[in-house]
Target: ParA family protein
Amino acid sequence: MAKEPTLATIAVYSLKGGVGKTTFAINLAWASASISKRRTLLWDLDPQAASSWLLSTDMESRDAAQAIFSKDVDVRKLIQPSTVAGLDLIAADTSLRSLDHLFREMDKKKRLAKLIESLGRDYDRIILDCPPGLTETSEQVLRAADLIVIPVIPSPLSQRAMGEVARYLVQRGGNHAPILPVYSMVDRRRSLHRAALDSQPDWPAIPMASAIEQMTVRRKPLGAFAPASQPAQAFASLWTMVERQLQVD
Model:
């Protein structure tokens, strides 16, 4: 008898901005819903709301995303279908700009984890598109996630940021979710990028490609309009690795 899938939360997180987090979150969520046929929720926690803009079916700004955490709004009331079949969305909005302040005031370190747990009957996979930085929000994310996917541009600064996250997790002590670093925006024509890939040959890599730029024009995940493209195939392979990691854990 096949084992029933249990809820797993995958956080797409980085200390730095501009590393492709939204691209990762959207394409991993698409793979979860469309390839693995999981009941999938993409939760946009970044006040820039890029994932929400790309996938939302409801363009009305509600400024209620933060109210989920203060219990003023039930989490299910903000869940909407996305433009991808089988993928639901909790959209971000500008209210999230003060989310760190709210978390400090509440002093409830597992508020996000408890909200996610309450959705366990409805979903198999929850993908978190996280804001950059080591903040109160990232603390909540790191406590809630079962796996942390970290996009890393093949450059010294981005790799240093990855190391800072790893050190931070060690310093916190106790158990934490495993991290999965993934090279992002890889251009093998650049010697710096080739050297980085050679230094970490086991890390997955997502290439820089015009198809990824087309996502913002078409407002669709890669798999929806360019499934045979190199980056779409790379994300499909990455999702297979994510699922394998979740099964091990």
About this structure: The chain has one domain: 8-46+74-246. The beta strands are 8-12, 40-44, 79-81, 87-90, 125-129, 147-152, 179-186, 205-207. The chain has a mean pLDDT of 90. The first strand starts at residue 8 and ends at 12.
